Amino acid sequence: MSPRCAAAGFQPEQAHQSREWETGASLVSAGLGVALIPRLARLPDGFDVVRVPLRGDPVPSRKILSGIRRGSGAQPIIASALEVLRECAETAARQGA
């Protein structure tokens, strides 16, 4: 049982499970349920589905970690990528995401 669902007083029934977004979108489009899809995931085209942001207290969140080889953080491409990740995280935090 999901601790968050239990705290809210319900247990969801899981009838299907998929590992790719196309399958999940197909099931939702066919009226066979709902799917939890990360905001960063691209929904496939051609399915009659819409995103509905989760809300609540606490606000749902995700943690993204990066891993680099020791000593490689000063390499320009790696440093640039890490800076972009930091900027995205700051932007998301300001927007309440």
Structural descriptors:
single chain; mainly alpha; 97 residues; extended; 0% strand
Q: How would the global form be characterised?
A: extended
What is the straight-line distance between the termini?
26 Å
Low-confidence stretches: none
Question: Share of helix among residues?
Answer: 25-40%
Radius of gyration in whole Å, from Cα?
18 Å
Largest sheet data: none
Q: How much beta, percentage-wise?
A: under 5%
Oligomer kind: single chain
The helix/strand order is HHH
Structural class of the secondary elements?
A: mainly alpha
Strand segment tally: 0
The number of helical elements comes to: 3
The average pLDDT value, as a whole number, equals: 85
How would you explain this protein's 3D organization?
The chain is mainly alpha-helical. The protein has three helices and no strands. It has helices at 3-8, 21-29, 76-94. The radius of gyration is 18 Å and the shape is extended. The two termini are 26 Å apart. The mean pLDDT is 85.
List the helices and strands and how they pair.
Elements: H1 3-8, H2 21-29, H3 76-94
Brief account:
The chain contains three helices and no strands. The chain has helices at 3-8, 21-29, 76-94.
